Amino acid sequence: MYSVTENCVVIEIKKSKFIACLFPVTTEEEVNRFLEKVKVDHPGATHYCYAYIIGSKQKCSDDHEPHGTAGAPILNVLIKRKLDYVLCVVVRYFGGIKLGAGGLVRAYSNATSQVLESTSIVELIPSYLITVTVSYEENKSFSSLVKSYSILETSYDDKIRYRLEIPRDDISLFRNYSVQITESRYMKKTTL
Asked: Which of 39, 77, 104, 105 could bridge to 112 as Cys pair (CB 3.0-4.6 Å)?
């Protein structure tokens, strides 16, 4: 499963300006915040068409373009690229020349493809946020185990408490320690 880094590109087709913007998202609230941000950043546009995929949720909007000519083409490109946790918004400033239904489909698909070509695609790895508590004695061997993972926080009291992000496949390495799983999510592994 793959997602994206934030990015925008501008293309012009028959005097209409299309601004395609990508955002990594994990919730519908984030989608709404980014949609509002795009409207503030690009005021007075004719259309703000978008599509997003968050796990099993998919949604798209033509924003008053003819039905099926904007949101669905954006969504189709995202699906073909096997992306998840992604929002693509394509802003259109109408240039005075009508593109027709086929032209709109091509324009929105092309804008989405171009922004994807110019962004970093990252692999998403299922992971857990965990808290591990170890004694100072155990820490000698434990610290060498955790140095290859993302350590989010360390606290020192009567015992040492680590807050880590661990790929799900690696969780069994921690079975000998006191582990509390606090959240399941996806971590970005590599840039492709």
From this structure: 77
